[in-house]
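A further point concerns the way the authors explain their paired sequence and structure data. Nothing conveys this as quickly as seeing an actual entry. An entry of this sort, consisting of the sequence and the corresponding backbone structure tokens, reads as follows:
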Amino acid sequence: MIDMTTPTSSTAQYRSAGSTGGSVHSDVCIVGNGAIAKTAALGFAQAGHTVTLLVPASGPAAGEGAAAGGERPWDVRVYALNHTAHDLLASLKVWGALDLARVAPVDAMAVNGDGKDGGSLGFDAFGARTGALAWIVEDSNLNNALDAALKFAHNVQVIQGCAVRLACAPEGAAIELEDGRRVDARLVVGADGRDSWVRGQCDIGIDYRSYHQRAIVTNFSCEKPHHGVAHQWFTCADGIIALLPLPGKRVSLVWSAPETLAAQLMDESMGELAIRLCEYADEALGTLKPLQPESSKSVPLALVRPHALTAPHVALVGDAAHAVHPLAGHGMNLGFGDIVDLLRVVAGREEHRGPGDERVLARYARARKEDVLLMQLATDGLERLFSANLEPVRIARNLGLNLLDKLPFVKQRLMAHAIGK
């Protein structure tokens, strides 16, 4: 499954601090404006901490208008949320605030190799002993629900502004803003995306690998019902193609295409893109047609591995802590896992330790190490494997898919880890 985890540009509107001068004090300062930042702010607030959410000044969120006839356009950016994400959002009273009519459960997944003799691998909710493998949720739907929940969090204040400096002292951290204001906090949480400003201020180095691919995301209507199945095709020349179920006879495309092909796809019309997809999707979904109004986006893909998840009084979460290839659909889910573990270790700290205490943050880093490393190795390894244009490798990987499909115990273990149960 596929998801994209670059923070949204929507701006939360709750209680705003003054625009010039002065300082703000809180237990926790969250830096960022996407779903991960808002979820972290809500989680700490509901745990009893005072929270400052520091967001960049920006205009209205894109894509929130209504299409002809009054229906809100379908967001091209979607997430495949697993059970870890679902349970966290439910515990924070956010899941029930979603527009559930626009949420699609994933009941099964069909993975296909490349070539006429390509291997295949299938997963389903029944085999995983669960009601759904995941849920496909639009970025705007999730952010709207988080914004609604944060309006009732009386110990959260939002500051809009440009941060210019992060300094740490024994008692906490301070963020200076361009207009002279300052935010003091015992813990700063960097939830500001792959190019994290917080991470850079802490001089945390990164290992960076460009995949020389761009993810093309858009939506289509399909001739045949999708039956809640997420389809994925691993090809060598064309990259990795995924069609995820949306409510009704609609699907969301995430095509991780080599840069040259991605440029061609973005230059073509949506109708031409639908014709290209027929080679893969026609048998399962029939004719695809662009949803109205037509919309598509292109996002560069890279592996980003920071050398540390923490610094004095600072913790990184979400893409600031790890950016992975979206082929497994777990970039956003890793971020929700970060929040679960960070909230847990902060809540379980000794009474004399603050939320940004060095030992508390070390526990957080240890808690996340295995899960993050496994996902990095799996996604990067699969991308390397399926991009290799060698016939023996192609034959071996297709045989591997077929073999794995015949090993129910191994499949169950893989599914349990993937769905967060």
Summary: Confidence is low (pLDDT under 50) at residues 1-14, 16-20, 59-69. The longest strand covers residues 206-222. DSSP finds ten helices and 19 strands in the chain.
